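Immunoglobulin superfamily DCC subclass member 3
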Amino acid sequence: MASAGRRCLVPCVLGILLNALIGVICEAELSFVLEPSDVIAVQEQPLMLHCQVSGLPPVTIQWRHSGLLLIQDQRHTTFSNGSLLIAHFLKTRSDGSSDEGDYECVAQNSFGLVVSRRARIQAATMANFHVQPESVHAEESGVARFQCQIHGLPEPVISWEKDGRPVDTGDERYTLLPTGVLQITGVRLEDSGRFCCVAHNSAAVKHSAEAVLTVSGSQSSVYKEPMILVGPENLTLTVHQTAILECVATGYPRPIVSWSRLDGRPIGVEGIQVLGTGNLMISDVGVQHSGVYVCAANKPGTRVRRTAQGRLVVQAPAEFVQAPQSIARPVGTTAIFTCQAQGEPEPQLAWLKNGQVLEPGGHVKLKNNNSTLTIYGISQDDEAIYQCIAENSAGSTQASARLTVLWADGLPGVPTRVRAEALSPTTIQVSWKEPGQNTQDIIGYVLHIRRTSDPVEEEYEEAVNKVTLQHIIRDLEPSTSYTFYCQGLHVPRGQQTVGLAPPRPLTGRCPRLLCSTRRC
Ligand SMILES: *[C@@H]1O[C@H](CO)[C@@H](O)[C@H](O)[C@H]1NC(C)=O
Ligand SMILES: *[C@@H]1O[C@H](CO)[C@@H](O)[C@H](O)[C@H]1NC(C)=O
Ligand SMILES: *[C@@H]1O[C@H](CO)[C@@H](O)[C@H](O)[C@H]1NC(C)=O
Ligand SMILES: *[C@@H]1O[C@H](CO)[C@@H](O)[C@H](O)[C@H]1NC(C)=O
């Protein structure tokens, strides 16, 4: 709709003037040095969450619990260094409330407001065993396996007892997997007894029910097909955790257990260990370890084999590849912030303006899955701290940047009494009056024009000389609504800059104006 010739004139002139001004970068003037981390809190114990900011004083720090501002009372103290103390952490209080939930630290100074990452606070707990060990019968030189499972926070550590005493972990026939499994290979008569598992974490210590192992003499020289008694489970872990892939094979002669990846890629050697006779342990997992793992049990010297498989999914918390940078821009220009985060699964991005969720619309646009925030024709209202929040199922992180709108005394004011009138189906006349102050520096005006239904990027400009104070826009579409605003164009006085306030060639914007062309 906009003809090429019309688009060019003003942008060309402005482009030269503006290039000199863009790219003034300064610090965010308010940012986090230390943010609260996720914590598993112990019941009835004090809990301290930390928050430190750097910024121009005075800075006030407050805390939000599940979105609501925390008030200072006997239960909560916010220290001057920003830390929050919960004197007596309780999962359930007498009034039905809970200290569990999301906590955010909110910092504010004259430049704006920033919100920290969301720290997830959970109470340490231990449920009852949901899998109890079961009594088993094993043949001499065969395999015995016990398992117990219990939910808890933090993850309970599981150990085993035999006849009331800790099992002999020095005996290499005994393999204890952190997942709550006890494997005994090459079973002997003296292994028979009563077994139970013990779970402990910061919340409790619990004993499982007892299970009995009975051992009978073997017919070991009889051939038995290789068989996989227990194969690997599907696992979802977060980076740096340890993966245990279990595989217990039986048969005579004893089968050889080996591991591979279904996609044919090598398993590697770093951080890889075999526990007991065939379990695979991967310490410090990374996203590259995600895949389907296949355990194979081979009859020695043959191709006879059985397999079992399990999928390992490794998640990575969101982290920034590119964080938004603070910028200073003259009034009326466009400000762009970019933010890119990586993680597994792909993080979602959202933006805050002075701590409030930024709702795009009008002259504020979010593009490329929220990785680009563009603010067109900035005004004083857009000056704020902008935060990019990246979040996925493995964690959340934030980065902040400030937009400074450059403006100073001695500049011309905003054009006033702007009016628009449809003259015909294809023309609209816009008129205005000079700004109230400092009009002597104005060399002309810029009229911004856009079909109301078009996105802001489609806006184009027409230049108008300083004496006319009105302009007829031609070649418009009939019965169509258009949006206008105008700005003065002025000669920066003296070109020299003082501190952070360089000369600006555009005045503020007049209010937006809507006008429709006539019907044909
Ligand atoms: C903040 O002050 C409190 C009370 O003096 C102290 O316990 C806490 O450790 C301090 N926080 C940091 C991060 O140093
Ligand atoms: C693991 O996940 C696959 C699908 O990805 C499913 O077919 C299989 O049954 C699961 N195995 C177990 C042990 O849950
Ligand atoms: C983009 O951010 C807004 C809030 O700033 C959020 O409501 C929306 O869901 C986000 N969209 C995507 C694709 O992440
Ligand atoms: C936005 O995200 C979707 C799904 O995460 C992806 O397929 C698409 O390529 C992304 N688009 C851009 C412009 O990054």
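thats it. Residues 1-28, 494-504 have pLDDT under 50 and may be disordered. The helical segments are 4-19. bye
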